[in-house]
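Lab notebook page, bench 4
Experiment: in silico fold of construct C2
Operator: M.H.
Input chain length: 196 residues
Purpose: comparison with the prior construct
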Amino acid sequence: MFKSASELLSFVKKENISLVDVRFIDLPGIQHHFNIPAHQFTEDVFKDGLMFDGSSIRGFQSIHESDMKLLPAAETAFVDPFRKEKTLVVNFSVVNPDDNSPYSRDPRQVVNKAVEYMRSTGIADTAYFAPEAEFYVFDRVRYLTGMNTGYYEIDSYEVHGIPELWPMPMELQTVDIAPELKAVISQYRRPINLLI
């Protein structure tokens, strides 16, 4: 969507973005995030990065070497369609704070190294990586946690006796959700394959 820092920063001003959702991934693949006000998302962030405590992230640094830095990847930015405040989501790469070199445990860097190796061996010249966003739609969820009790109850029309792959025509209450999800996700130029 965006090709450069200047293009992204112009978009933030032009579109009156309120917040920037800073996202990065830990070694096991869990996405972490925090928000900053859009006025703090400046050209300096692309040069100097944002500092964070690497010792609080699983698989990163120990406490005595916990200073870590995040640098934005402008090409990953998109406006979150579900946030009340107009929010720009940006994926960041984790780098070493002293010299901005790629951090060896950042999954984005692991992917870059894998692609470089793949190309150097001649196996292929393109690789595709994507998350699998799996979720369920329920009609009702109830739960209770107390001093001497705890339970959960999940109810969904589709849970009862529906095979894993459905014959046509699908007789699911949620069948109309798939095209709507695909339309929203496709706005952000993300490849998508939905099976609902």
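Observations: The helical segments are 5-14, 43-48, 107-121, 177-186. The longest strand covers residues 87-95.
Next step: discuss at group meeting.
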